[in-house]
Amino acid sequence: ARTKELADVVSAEVGSPRKWTTFGQLATALGVYRACAAIVEDYEFEERRPSATGGEVLVRRLPVGVVGAIVPWNAPLFTAALKMAPALAAGCTIVLKPSPEAPLALSMLAECIEEAGIPAGVINIVSGGVATGAALVAHPGVDKISFTGSTGVGKALVKQSSDKLLRTSMELGGNAPFVVFDDADVDAAV
Q1: Dihedral sign from CA coordinates of 157, 84, 136, 168
Q2: Beta carbons within 10 angstroms of residue 7's beta carbon
Q3: CB–CB of 59/47 below 8 Å?
Q4: How many whole angstroms separate alpha carbon 83 and alpha carbon 159?
Q5: Per DSSP, what are the bridge partners of residue 97?
Q6: CB-side exposure of 109: number of CA atoms within 13 Å?
Q7: Residues 142-154 pLDDT 10s
Q8: Whole-prediction pTM value?
Q9: What is the phi-psi region of residue 54: left when phi exceeds 0, alpha when psi lies from -120 to 50, beta otherwise?
Q10: Helices (H) and strands (E) in the chain, counts
């Protein structure tokens, strides 16, 4: 219901063209939510398998617990969906931390979550900078960290999380905007 408003905010906040925002952020995020919802309908969270000793074993796939998800500035809604949809489908709660450079889209997402009637505490959004991310990793109630961002920050988060053997998922590499002005040689820039 708020697609146009979300697209306007993301385009203004991260500087992406409106068409990219609409399809590359919103449509793909909705696709992720729909795909996870479809998968979870028939997913085998428990199955019996034959064991090597002739008996059988019960394999149970349990929710990990609270997932702390640190989202980058450049694709806040899509990356949040990639972290949030699987966590929720698996039965986890989630704490999303947007980039301090682009907090508005996830703040608006928080409003949408509340409007949708999702119970309080299932999806949480906390804003802040490096200290907030570090506090999320250090919090004793967080069972997993999912981070998308620079390799340097990812290394620091893994080091910090190692004391409590925190599960981590990292998408690393780092990205920075590349601005091409009207007077630039476009072929050289590409």
Answers
A1: negative
A2: 22
A3: yes
A4: 21
A5: 70
A6: 28
A7: 999 999 998 999 9
A8: 0.86
A9: left
A10: 8, 7
